[in-house]
Design goal:
With about 375 residues, the chain is an alpha/beta fold. About 40% of the residues lie in helices and about 15% in strands. The chain binds iron/sulfur cluster.
């Protein structure tokens, strides 16, 4: 059996086979990835989520060189939102039928742990129907340093206060030689810490996703190693608690106006698509793969639907992190997402963050409405 035929059959691939796939023509690899996607998910539909990103504070002491979002406390535009301001954003999301908030911020050493617990309790009291997925592993590590508690203890307390899941932020390349390189983020949460915090969250039944960013100057071997670290973690998660990563999302490093500009090569659309296809083929224990329209633009994201992706991500409503490093878009509407899915030849399905179907919108009716 040829390597491409083996890949298209969905069988497990080795690191060497993955590296060999990177040498083959892009559209051959894409065809194999698309075949696996059609076999593992509903072949007729592409799903999406109506949600909102909320960045509760931009104060951060980690200092990643690719980040244009963070501020020190003394900078004039440093902010921390109040509970009321955050709740107002959730109310705006509910008004358009949204079901999930993705809440992340900097690692703010001036916020007490009780502030996070109080925030979750406040939001659950006023908006019980909205799922709260919040605090990436970097922020959870910050809370362990703040409190002296273990990550697991922190997560138990947050879950008790209302946390439903963790965003996969900070995955980037899960190889320490890349993520801790002097031109990237020497103080960043390590590969082992990131994976362990996610495992702790999965053990508690919390929802998790995995992310990958390419373009730091990592080698093909390091990209494959990063993906295999995720595949191994997913094997362990499914075997030990039956609750693994719900989705995988990748994009390219955004460098506009940030310190890493000129020190990392970034990655173009061709590399992005190749990595999307490779991910679908190598991560045989992940079901859902999201296309990244915010960083890659709509047309590349549509193309990714033929390279292994089965999901068009979410409306986001308000994104402040990658957009401050040059991402193409920071939010979109349900109407626009539906248009992109239909134009690509699929039926749109609104999902919740657990990938349950919420609605099957009528594209004709939705697209005939005036744009908001
Ligand atoms: S990426 Fe996150 S952890 Fe890094 S500096 Fe920005 S806000 Fe801080």
């Amino acid at each position: 059996m040829s390597l491409l035929a083996k890949a298209a059959s969905g069988r497990r691939l080795s690191a060497q086979e993955a590296l060999s796939l990177l040498e083959l023509p892009l559209f051959d690899v894409a065809a194999a990835a698309h075949e696996v996607r059609l076999a593992r998910t509903d072949p007729r539909t592409v799903s999406y989520l109506i949600d909102r990103n909320i960045n509760y504070s931009n104060v951060c002491n980690v200092g990643c060189s690719f980040c244009g979002f963070y501020r020190t406390r003394r900078q004039a535009d440093a902010y921390t939102l109040t509970y009321e301001q955050i709740a107002q954003k959730v109310a705006e999301l509910e008004a358009i039928g949204g079901t999930r908030i993705l809440m992340q911020g900097g690692v703010n050493p001036y916020l007490e742990f009780d502030w996070y617990l109080g925030l979750l309790q406040y939001l659950k009291a006023y908006h019980p129907a909205v799922r709260i997925e919040a605090f990436s592993p970097e922020e959870i590590r910050g809370m362990t340093r703040l409190t002296g508690m273990t990550a697991s203890e922190v997560l138990v307390a947050l879950k008790g206060a209302g946390l439903d899941g963790l965003p996969g932020g900070g995955g980037e390349i899960l190889v320490d030689d890349v993520r801790h390189a002097s031109h990237v983020a020497p103080a960043r949460v390590s590969t082992g810490e990131w994976l362990q915090i996610m495992a702790d969250a999965q053990d508690l039944g919390l929802y998790t996703t995995a992310t990958m960013v390419i373009g730091f100057g990592e080698t093909p071997e390091q990209r494959v190693e990063s993906l295999l670290n995720l595949r191994d973690a997913q094997d362990r998660a499914l075997a030990t608690h039956g609750n693994g990563y719900s989705a995988f999302i990748s994009w390219t490093l955004q460098t506009q106006g940030v310190r890493i500009h000129g020190h990392a090569p970034g990655a173009d659309a061709h590399e992005y698509l190749r990595n999307v296809a490779l991910s679908r083929l190598l991560l045989d224990n992940f079901v859902n793969f999201q296309a990244s329209w915010p960083t890659m633009g709509y047309k590349v994201a549509q193309t990714a639907l033929f390279f292994g992706c089965n999901d068009f991500g979410s409306t986001m409503m308000e994104e402040n992190v990658v957009s401050q490093a040059g991402a193409t878009h920071s939010s979109t509407s349900e109407r626009e997402i539906v248009r992109q899915i239909v134009d690509a030849g699929f039926s749109p399905v609104q999902r919740d963050s657990l990938y349950n179907v919420v609605a099957r919108p009528d594209p004709t009716s939705l697209l005939s409405q005036p744009a908001a």
